[in-house]
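Anyone else keep sequences and structure tokens together like this?

Example one:
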Amino acid sequence: MLEIKKIAVLSELNELKKEYFEKTTSALDGMWHFGFVPMSEHFGFYVNNELVGFCCINDDGYLLQFHLETNSDTSAQALFTLIAQQNSKVIGQVKGAFVSTAEPDYMSLCLDNSSIFKVNALMYKQDPKVSNTQKHSFVMAMATEQQLAEYVKFASNNIGAPEQWLTGYYGKLIKRKELFGYRKEGQLLAVGECRLFDEHQSDYADLGMIVAQSMRGQGIAKKVLNWLKTHASSKGLKSMCSTESDNIAAQKAIVSAGFISTNRIVQFEFNIA
């Protein structure tokens, strides 16, 4: 008999998470799967008290991951439909899902339960025809703990992210030596992230950037990405990044920095019977 229970300790899912990432066809977006997923509520699927799968749902009621172990006798289609139709008393309301096209099993289940979807973001990887290492006159410096407040204010002013969240997020990146800044005449004009993975996808670096609004359209974004890509390559890592589907300026900068996009993050809205 199948039971659905809340997961209190995420380490219980280590083996299932490993299998989940092994089944993907390409690297998954780091912010979604290592930033948003850990903050989401997780539920385990149990058969005869044995954990055979899991899903996680964010605060807005959207699925972010869904997985059943490969050899499970449980029907993934039936279980997913149960959840999507809000027929699980344990899980409750589920509005829809976010899924990468690099997650074919999860994507297929979403398609079976939705007629409304849109592209949320584009995922990029290095173009193999473009060199990964370049010499730069453009230089970025590693952020320090003393500069945390400055970086938080910069990001809040330029992309509108909440300062409380940024303080925790940037604080972690600084401790991991993964946050960098570009300055001119002492003024912070761009911030770059080179996020490394502790597990799963550990041969990749996930890049991110913010350019001051007053400096956009001057080619700085391309320079930031090229610098970050070279930095990642010096560590033996392949670079990846993503941006929103409506951010045309960022898309142009990413492509000009030698990236190509073959996968998307898709937002589904479930058909509620």
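And example two:
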Amino acid sequence: MGQQPNIEIDPRDLPRRSAAPGVARSWRPSRPGELNSPEEVPSGGPFGVIGPDSGYALKLVGEHQLALLPGEHHHDVAAAVAAIASARAARLGRAPIADDVAVGMIVLGLDAAAAVDAGVLSNRPRWLANVGHDAAKLRKLVADVPQQLLEATPDALRTHVSSGWIFRNGGSSE
């Protein structure tokens, strides 16, 4: 709208330029330990293989009735099954599904349809003692499961387990 001729405008009321911020400078992290790209995210060894939505394995495990041995706690057994299921799913590049939980239950001797090795049942309370509260012990337990067991289908694994097996390193997840 134009200015009316009978009204004087004070110079202080005129529009003023405001300071515009400059163009943003480029920035890259330069501190040690900063990750600059997805390729730099550590994987394998003590870092494991990270998969999407691994917490969903706990929900899937919660849908199963776990047959506990004397001295075992539900929290520890559920955490172990979920960790094995998550490791299997991550190895296959996806989130956990029911077959992953089935593999975890077969590996730990919790599947009623699979023949269970006596060594697994006798050592399981020791292997799973406090794994729900000790992340290092849980990672060691998962690392001790042979890779061919994690890659097998549940039906193939039931057949394999019936022939007898034991964790790598004798199940020494302590």
